[in-house]
From TrEMBL, chain A:
Presence of the UniProt keyword Cytoplasm in the record: no
Pfam families for the chain: LXN
Keyword Repeat applies: yes
Gene3D superfamilies for the chain: 3.10.450.10
Species lineage: Eukaryota, Metazoa, Chordata, Craniata, Vertebrata
UniProt region (Disordered), positions on chain: 215-235
Annotated source species: Vicugna pacos
PROSITE patterns in alphabetical order: CYSTATIN_LXN
Limits of the Cystatin LXN-type domain: 1-94, 114-217
Gene coding for it: RARRES1
Domain of life where this protein originates: Eukaryota
Family stated for the protein in its record: Belongs to the protease inhibitor I47 (latexin) family.
Record-linked InterPro entries: CYSTATIN_LXN, Cystatin_sf, Latexin
Residues annotated as signal peptide: none
Keyword tags: Protease inhibitor, Receptor, Repeat
Protein name, per record: Retinoic acid receptor responder protein 1 isoform X2
Automatic annotation (TrEMBL), chain B:
Name of this chain's protein: Carboxypeptidase A1 isoform X1
Catalytic residue list: 292
Chain ranges of the Peptidase M14 domain: 33-326
Coiled coil: none
Cofactor or coenzyme needed: Zn(2+)
InterPro entries: CARBOXYPEPT_ZN_1, CARBOXYPEPT_ZN_2, CPA_M14_CPD, Peptidase_M14
Gene3D superfamilies: Zn peptidases (3.40.630.10)
Lineage: Eukaryota, Metazoa, Chordata, Craniata, Vertebrata
Organism of this sequence: Vicugna pacos
Length: 235, 331
């Protein structure tokens, strides 16, 4: 059931911690085992509790908060509804500060950033490129959530080809290709993602994935289990 | 014209550099970095040369593209002793597994005669270690596509290449849990054992006839799995296998706290047909297990090289637990 927590924390991260893009959140463990419920309407509900931690090798693990979530699939469709609450231990002001630091680091990067492969084939991410990975991971989390069903779940395998370019309003305008790894089919799915970010404002994500032709997979236009939360819908 | 010359010079310099930095002994070999096929094959020869009484290299076949397939044999004597089989790298992109295999090989030569429990194992049993089970795929992950999983065999009638070597075994072959599409990552191939990489191991196991534990190593997910993958029916030895898995996982976690889950393939990971340990179990090799090594998705297949040694160290403790149980429970 670990993969269910994967979706929940992605949602948590994207929604709740959209305010806190610079923090990398790592799911640490499930405290309460998820309850498996399938009712007559072919809905599948999973309740879980987990903690999130900041993972920064230099600074060691820092507990960020404890989350509880309910993940809700309907008719085996993608985009599960996730009701998640995280009790944040780091205060909002500090989170905004760190977001702004990330923004500054991204701005200082050579423009346009034209990088291939993060991490490299040996799993290494140069510290100067880490902010790119963090932001890409945030955007990818949204895409992964959009595609997740109770049968299909995704991980970010590698960033290939990154392009960053300025916009008039000074937002970070960031295009990249991410290779997603779908676990049950073991397929690698390339997705082109374009995100626009300014600290404090909601992330805007546009994407196109190369779909593998399998019958079980939902198409991009099909209605998901959940209506997308309003703060994500302005793109 | 000038650009071509430059790239030629660059390539030449790279090769010179590579040969200069090639390890001259297994003592100077870098265990905390990922290596090419050539480097791993060189390592094997070095290990044999340094430990001729203990280690020998067997060629069990040739890959689809004609690369030799090697197995290291660790033996202190006897004749066809009961044996442990370990394979890594059947899925080529799972680089942590081949890297761990190299470390295991070295570890065996270090611990024999030094560690009492391990010495007892090797005094009574042989160990066979196949480090690069899918050499064509592995070469391809270095040259063209880091995330290549399958073999590199051509399928007539399709432009897609490769078969999932862990869907090609004769156990529930072609049933649910594998794909019949040549373009799929879990394509089972046109028939069981169609892949020479698989057939070579099958022939070896059958010819040997005395293998008592078969351990297949993959990544990622941090799991220890026993049969079955192709059906929900429990193996007859389920209780014992479950207990062994439990102990092995506890041993693994004791080193760095890495958390593993364990159980049958079908209940723990997903339905998968034509898998190696389902076949070996059905052949009577009771202690058949599959490992899924670090991590749980953060880096996935691209596990940082800094984690090679810790991963290999903790996994070794689990392997030891299984080997000890095999030694103490002859059948």
């Amino acid at each position: 059931m670990l993969w269910i927590t994967n979706i929940a924390w992605k949602m948590c991260r994207f929604g709740e911690l959209n305010q806190n893009a610079s923090q990398e959140v790592t799911l640490s463990m499930v405290v309460a085992d998820p309850e498996n419920q399938i009712n007559q309407k072919k809905e599948r509900k999973v309740d879980l509790v987990f903690t999130t931690e900041l993972y920064n090798p230099e600074e060691g693990n820092k507990r960020l908060g404890k989350c509880s979530a309910r993940v809700f699939f309907r008719n085996e469709k993608p985009r599960p509804a996730v009701n998640v609450t995280c009790a944040q231990l780091i205060e909002k002001k500090k989170r905004h500060e760190e977001d702004y630091q990330l923004y500054k680091r991204m701005k200082q990067l050579q423009n346009p950033v034209d990088v291939v492969s993060i991490p490299d084939n040996h799993g290494h991410i140069d510290p100067s490129l880490k902010p790119i990975w963090d932001l890409a991971f945030l955007g990818s989390s949204y895409v992964m959530w959009e595609k997740t069903t109770q049968f299909l779940h995704y991980y970010m395998a590698q960033l290939s080809r990154v392009k960053q370019w300025k916009t008039n309003d000074d937002a970070i305008d960031f295009g990249y290709t991410v290779l997603l790894h779908e676990f049950s089919t073991q397929e690698i799915i390339p997705c082109h993602i374009h995100l626009v970010w300014y600290p404090g404002k909601p992330l805007k994500v546009k994407y196109h994935c190369q779909e593998v032709q399998t019958p079980e997979e939902a198409s991009g236009t099909e209605e998901g289990s959940a209506v997308a939360p309003t703060e994500l819908s302005n793109f | 014209m000038i650009e071509d010359v430059q790239s030629l010079l660059d390539e030449e310099q790279e090769q010179m550099f590579a040969s200069q930095s090639r390890a001259r002994s297994t003592r100077t070999f870098n265990y905390d970095t990922y290596h090419t096929l050539e480097e791993i094959y060189d390592f094997m020869d070095l290990l044999v040369a340094e430990n001729p009484q203990l280690v020998s290299k067997l060629q069990i076949g040739n890959s689809y593209e004609g690369r030799p397939i090697y197995v290291l044999k660790f033996s202190t004597g006897g004749s066809n002793r009961p044996a442990i089989w370990i394979d890594t790298g059947i899925h080529s992109r799972e680089w942590i597994t081949q890297a761990s295999g190299v470390w295991f090989a070295k570890k065996i030569t270090e611990d024999y005669g030094q560690d009492a429990a391990f010495t007892a194992i090797l005094d009574n049993m042989d160990i066979f270690l196949e480090i690069v089970t899918n050499p064509d795929g592995f070469a391809y992950t270095h040259s063209k596509n880091r995330l290549w999983r399958k073999t590199r065999s051509l399928t007539s009638g399709s432009s897609c290449v490769g078969v999932d070597a862990n869907r090609n075994w004769d156990a529930g072959f072609g049933m649910s849990g594998a794909s019949s599409s040549p373009c799929s990552e879990t394509y089972h191939g046109k028939s069981a054992n169609s892949e020479v990489e698989v057939k070579s191991v099958v022939d070896f196991v059958n010819d040997h006839g005395n293998i008592k534990a078969f351990l297949s190593i993959h990544s990622y997910s941090q799991l220890l799995l026993y049969p079955y993958g192709y059906k929900t029916e429990s193996p007859a030895d389920k209780d014992e296998l479950d207990q062994v898995a439990k102990s092995a996982v506890a041993a693994l976690s004791s080193l760095y706290g890495t958390e593993y889950k364990y159980g049958s393939i079908i209940t723990t990971i997903y339905q998968a047909s034509g898998g190696s340990i389902d076949w070996t179990y059905n052949q009577g090799i009771k202690y058949s297990f599959t490992f899924e090594l670090r991590d749980t998705g953060r880096y996935g297949f691209l596990l940082p090289a800094s984690q090679i040694i810790p991963t290999a160290q903790e996994t070794w403790l689990a392997l030891l637990t299984i080997m000890e149980h095999t030694l103490n429970n002859p059948y």
